[in-house]
């Protein structure tokens, strides 16, 4: 006999109940897997942080001793070459360790928000690079514009961009920084005259540990731009690059301009 309408309805309800139970089990298992993944990621970050901190002191000591030896006038040419290689390797490893520490700190620590004059910050950073003999330009007459931000992290963001521009620029070529107030957003750009970046690499260069083709010999491990993106996005902004091969690169950051704070009435 064919099933009655009531039996069909009951079978449908039973099937829906089974599906609902299976969905609940899947949700619980997914939540548990996510919790385990977060815990394992936190543990990995803690271990990496401790290792990186432990590496910094001996690396700095090696670099310091190597620099001291390079000042020794009685070294043979071969000895000087070997010590120079030691100093260069120690510098590379120190930079790698510092990038790892920066990456973990940016992702884990809270933002300390306060009004930040972006123009004053850029002026201070660009002046520091010029004092070190780098060709970095910025118009000091740019009108002030404030953002609600973490000054330390914003300075780190700018440092990474300028360092990246200098790294890929021919010696003596100018790196230009500009700040433009566009109303609801402020645009900060850093331009270089380096080899440029192919359009198909524009999104990938902001991924952690990514190295664009032809940059393997450059210092670093590919975390600098990832840190920039992380800081910008945590401030509610965006970062992009305008570039093509042979045409240099301009990194463009957009951050929300700080809204006027309401004044209390007496």
How would you summarize what this structure contains?
The chain is an alpha+beta fold and 266 residues long. The protein has 5 helices and 7 strands.
CATH names the topology of the largest domain as Heat Shock Protein 90
At CATH level 2, the architecture of the largest domain is 2-Layer Sandwich
CATH class of the largest domain: Alpha Beta
Order of helices and strands: HHEHEEHEEHEE
CATH homologous superfamily of the largest domain, by name? Answer: Histidine kinase-like ATPase, C-terminal domain
Order of strands, widest sheet: 2-4-5-7-6
Largest sheet: 5 strands, mixed
Give the overall shape, derived from the CA principal axes: extended
Radius of gyration: 26 Å
Put simply, the count of helices is 5
Q: Which secondary-structure class do the elements indicate? A: alpha+beta
Query: End-to-end distance, in Å?
Result: 86 Å
Helix content: 40-55%
């Amino acid at each position: 006999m064919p099933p009655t309408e009531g039996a069909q309805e009951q079978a449908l309800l039973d099937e829906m109940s089974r599906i609902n139970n299976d969905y609940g089990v899947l949700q619980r298992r997914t939540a548990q897997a996510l919790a385990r993944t977060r815990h394992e990621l936190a543990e990995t970050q803690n271990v990496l942080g401790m290792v990186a901190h432990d590496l910094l002191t001996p690396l700095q000591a090696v670099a310091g001793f190597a620099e001291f030896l390079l000042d020794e006038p009685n070294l043979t040419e071969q000895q000087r070459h070997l010590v120079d290689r030691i100093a260069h390797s120690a510098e590379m490893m120190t930079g790698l360790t510092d990038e790892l520490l920066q990456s973990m700190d940016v992702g884990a620590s809270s933002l300390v928000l306060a009004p930040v004059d972006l123009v004053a910050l850029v002026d201070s950073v660009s002046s520091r690079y010029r004092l070190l003999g780098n060709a970095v330009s910025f118009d000091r007459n740019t009108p002030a514009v404030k953002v609600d931000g973490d000054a330390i992290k914003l300075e780190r963001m700018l440092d990474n961009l300028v360092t990246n521009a200098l790294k890929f620029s021919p010696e003596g070529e100018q790196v230009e920084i500009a700040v433009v107030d566009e109303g609801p957003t402020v645009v900060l750009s850093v331009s270089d005259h380096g080899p440029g970046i192919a359009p198909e690499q524009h999104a990938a260069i902001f991924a952690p540990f990514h190295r664009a083709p032809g940059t393997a010999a450059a210092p670093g491990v590919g975390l600098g731009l990832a840190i920039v993106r992380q800081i910008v996005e945590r401030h509610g902004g965006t970062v992009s690059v305008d570039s093509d091969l042979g045409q240099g690169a301009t990194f463009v950051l957009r951050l929300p301009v700080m809204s006027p704070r309401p004044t209390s009435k007496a």
